[in-house]
């Protein structure tokens, strides 16, 4: 696939017919402090006025995403739990539930990894809440960032909830330690490194790309009318499902190779600036997008 190219207003056709924008959160929309850029709010107002749907697409929990998007949340589409849950304006469009027997096996594998000396813990992500059996402050603080609804339990194998995924937080290098430990589940499940410290295990049918196609069908929107932004490995299918696919300047090399275009990094408000430039939206406080800031992936 060709290397993504920098995008400037001069490179783009006038007012492309974009009807849906799907945006990853961490490393993409959120700034390095994991905060929503304040310039997003007037942009969302303008997108709504133009009839363009905005869809956060994240490994985060729905309740967390709704909290982050505030007053706009009831009118948005959401792809939560890496595609395990898809919602449009409060209505559930799809869920993809993991076999309870698999959940037990994964929890036991994470326990064994921890017993071997790895500093890891599992989060069982259900439709009603997320659950942890590791209760130390350092681990819970990491989980609180991503799970607004987080229950502490004694035994993750006894959770009475439909499970959308099992997430594992690794205080070390998740790709080097946790991913290999869960590799045996790849015969029947999807094991995805979703961040430097996170690995997610889900059904093989669960990913952001399939979820975005669900949103497209619900809205009557085509791939050619869809824009998407991502930065990490769990965003690859999301970008595949959108003709206007953007990798952030800070993206993983595989993600940059997958996207058609490059956007400035999340530390430069790249999502808001790129949307504003491509769609010709003036947003107060948004720096113009130019070739000096829209850096092409190597």
UniProtKB/TrEMBL annotation:
Which GO cellular component does the record give, naming just one? cytosol
Kindly indicate whether the keyword Cytoplasm belongs to this entry.
no
Q: This protein's superkingdom?
A: Bacteria
Q: Which of UniProt's keywords are assigned here?
A: Hydrolase
The molecular function terms of the Gene Ontology recorded here are:
magnesium ion binding; phosphatase activity
CDD domains on file: HAD_YbiV-Like (cd07518)
> What Pfam families does the annotation carry?
Hydrolase_3
Q: Could you tell me what this protein is called?
A: HAD family hydrolase
């Amino acid at each position: 696939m060709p290397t993504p190219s920098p995008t400037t207003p001069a490179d783009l056709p006038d007012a492309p017919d974009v009807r849906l924008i799907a945006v990853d959160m961490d490393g993409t929309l959120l700034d390095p402090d994991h905060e929503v850029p304040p310039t997003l709010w007037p942009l969302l107002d303008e997108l709504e006025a133009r009839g363009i749907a905005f869809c956060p697409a994240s490994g985060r929990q729905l309740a967390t995403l709704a909290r982050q998007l505030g007053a706009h949340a009831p009118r948005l589409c959401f792809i939560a739990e890496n595609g395990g849950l898809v919602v449009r304006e409060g209505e559930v469009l799809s869920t993809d539930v993991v076999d309870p027997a698999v959940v037990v096996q994964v929890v036991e594998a994470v326990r064994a990894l921890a017993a071997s000396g790895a500093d890891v813990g599992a989060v069982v992500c259900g439709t009603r809440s997320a659950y942890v059996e590791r209760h130390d402050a350092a681990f819970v603080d990491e989980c609180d960032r991503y799970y607004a609804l987080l229950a502490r339990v004694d035994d993750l194998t006894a959770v009475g909830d439909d499970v959308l995924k099992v997430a594992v937080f690794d205080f070390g290098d998740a790709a080097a330690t946790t991913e290999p430990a869960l590799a045996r589940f790849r015969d029947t499940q999807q094991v995805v490194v979703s961040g430097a410290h996170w690995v997610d295990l889900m059904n093989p049918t669960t990913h952001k790309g399939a979820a975005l196609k669900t949103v497209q069908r619900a809205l009557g929107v085509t791939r050619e009318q869809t824009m998407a932004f991502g930065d990490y490995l769990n965003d690859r299918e999301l970008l595949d499902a959108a003709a206007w696919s953007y990798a952030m300047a800070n993206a993983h090399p595989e993600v940059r190779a997958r996207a058609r275009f490059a956007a400035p990094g999340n530390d430069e408000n790249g999502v808001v600036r790129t949307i504003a430039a491509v769609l010709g939206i003036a947003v107060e406080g948004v720096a113009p997008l130019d070739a000096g800031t829209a850096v092409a992936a190597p």
